[in-house]
Fold these 2 entries.
Entry 1:
Amino acid sequence: MPGGQDVRVDPLTGAVVVVAGARQGRPDLSAATDRAGCPFCPGGLEAPEPYTTRWFPNRWPSLPDGRAELLLYTPDHDAALWSLGVEGATAVVALWAERTAAQGTRPDVSYVLAFENRGPAVGATVPHPHGQLYAFSFVPEAAGRELADSACPLCEPPAEERLVTVAGGWRAEVPFAPAWPFELRLSPSAHVPDLPALDGEGRRDLAAVLVDALARLDQLFDAAMPYMLWWHQRPTDGGDWPQAHVHAHVAPLWRSPGTPRFVAAGELGSGVFFDPVVPEEAAERLRALPGAPA
């Protein structure tokens, strides 16, 4: 593959690994304290003109041939996704959907993963609000496992004790068996397969529940919560995939104020996760917070 990238499968474990040696040279601006020199601010290297949202190919791609993108949420360097409000977050949802559709039409793309790493503690190297997109030539294992069963758990009404917030046809809930403390799952009650299939009302409802849920995470410990967010949706390989139900996973890093939840040897070695926070108690604490300001 170009740029020294190649896909390898470990013969012992079956794990799929993309070797992307060129990414070692990418800059780390995570310690920057202001917008001076930020490549994502208007006038910067990657955003020479004013914009509302913006996308461009990653200069240090994890996948070749234009299948790794940067997605800029806002020109405001100091914003958070939730602080954009429903209107701003709706524009981000539209960006996710637009780039999913564009990459999904490629014959060499079978799965589009939109995601965000928020904060240097989870690997974000630029503090400006942004996400990324990987367009895989295969269906990744984590997404494939969710599509293996013909039944759809996301079509079932959520348990009230794990429900955090609702906006229109969308909800945020703590999963029954979360791997991360205060983990959230966002999904529509309707069986919608992917982000491009959401209509205008569905996109706005998603934006509203996203803003509310992420604001609660920042209020939980009165600090900006580092988190990982990723979208699972219908593969783009031409299959029917009737069981696909679009949803987001949100994995917050902290288990208590400033204390990371590490995934360590006992979990990586066994494949079994140990959550130190009872899911129902996590949901209760998040529900008790006011959420996003009106």
Note: The chain has one domain: 28-287.
Entry 2:
Amino acid sequence: MHAVIMGCGRVGSRLARRLEKQGHSVAVIDKDARSFHLLDVGFQGKKVHGIGFDPNVLVEAGIEKADAFIAVSSGDNSNFVSSKIAKDVFHVPKVVARIYDPRRAMIYRRTGVPTVAPVAWGTNKIADLLFLQQSDTRDTFGNGEVELMEFELPSNLAGRPVRDFEVPGEIHVGAIERGGAAFMPVPASTFERNDLVSVMVLRASMVKFKKMFFMS
């Protein structure tokens, strides 16, 4: 795979080193040539000094043969514009843009550019650590709109049917691990003591999730 990364900051440089160690070819673009010092001395990928949404700079970085384009510069607009060019002009199969402003992230995503919004993700994670101490976020989807929560079943819920704890479109019990083996429950399945439960939760329904499982 050939990946073109725009932005050689902490994220861009670390991603570049990781991809190269995994055997992929990498080109890194940055408008400040001094940023390339964040790459390893032994980095074999291409370093391109220039503006990431300049088509000539992208071509120099190998965008025409790229399998992936990742925009992680410090500017939301630059990340979005360069991603659109990579996607719509050069038809790169996989394009991802980091967007700091959560409001922009939603707008940009509607245009077909997958985004990562660290501010929204970080805010949601901190809220979890403060208010959802009984459970752990195992994974997130989108920018945290949906979360996969994993926790040990409270003992007072043993014997209750799964259907009592599901809300269509908001809360769904996806898996139960019991005795070292996991299975996907049906609404009629019943919880047992010491079950390890995985639940898909809409972030807007987090309070409802907490009340159902930890305040019953």
Note: The first helix runs from residue 10 to 21.
